[in-house]
User: Which sequence fits this backbone?
């Protein structure tokens, strides 16, 4: 029987790696929500790297026409075209645009999976479509699914509530709709799983989470409201390849 597991990046790093698996990276506030929205808004290629300096180098060396999008500590990086703001991306067309993206947490988690295949990006926005897509791939390849909440950029052992809740919802859908055995474990998991059954409570908790409140204080209340919408987008971004060039690691969504 194929399994699904929500697991922190810290715990995953200590596991013996399987040759075949499907991975879902979640950073609800806001990296994966932004990338899902950018893809849905028409972006042709998205290059993800781990920090602003590398993003600027990629633009200078390889992708001179690309837009620089992302943040550091929640704020748009100096010299970038946009911050990490999915609510804005939902109202704009990026048709045919190349994008170089980075963020404080999610981008690092994504690029950290460069040794793996079948890496997808999940959010509340594409909840139904990400569930169906990874179920299809895992059943075809007869392998398990790992859901990786990105967590905190300054404490890899910290549970970030919005990422775990999103991961738990994906795992629950995989279990109830597609027959995967959910082997996620731990007190945090069991307690938060109960919350996902009430959409109102879920929304209230996400808005009042530490990161939700921090984004509101920074002026990004629209991002919080947008990112907690369920299954509004059908796009499922997939990492097509990882590259290493001029000392810069980055991955490609096309």
Assistant:
């Amino acid at each position: 029987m194929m399994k699904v597991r929500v697991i922190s990046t810290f715990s995953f790093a200590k596991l013996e790696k399987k040759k075949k698996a499907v991975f879902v990276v979640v950073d609800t506030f806001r990296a994966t929500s932004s990338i899902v929205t950018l893809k849905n808004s028409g972006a042709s290629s998205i290059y993800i790297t781990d920090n602003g300096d590398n993003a600027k180098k990629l633009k200078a060396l390889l992708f001179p026409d690309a837009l620089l999008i992302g943040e550091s500590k929640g704020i748009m990086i100096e010299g970038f075209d946009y911050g990490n703001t999915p609510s804005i991306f939902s109202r704009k067309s990026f048709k045919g645009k190349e994008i170089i993206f980075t963020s404080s947490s999610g981008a690092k988690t994504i690029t950290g999976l460069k040794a793996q295949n079948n890496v997808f990006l999940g959010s509340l926005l594409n909840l139904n479509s990400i569930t169906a897509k990874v179920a299809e791939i895992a059943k075809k390849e007869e392998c398990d699914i790992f859901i990786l909440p990105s967590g905190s950029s300054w404490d890899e052992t910290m549970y970030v509530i919005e990422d775990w809740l999103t991961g738990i919802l994906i795992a629950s859908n995989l279990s109830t709709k597609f027959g995967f055995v959910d082997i996620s474990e731990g007190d945090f998991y069991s307690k938060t799983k109960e919350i996902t059954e009430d959409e109102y409570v879920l929304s209230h908790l996400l808005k009042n989470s530490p990161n939700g409140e921090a984004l509101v204080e920074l002026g990004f209340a629209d991002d919080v409201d947008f990112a907690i919408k369920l299954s509004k987008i059908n796009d499922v971004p997939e990492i097509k390849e990882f590259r290493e060039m001029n000392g810069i690691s980055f991955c490609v969504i096309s």
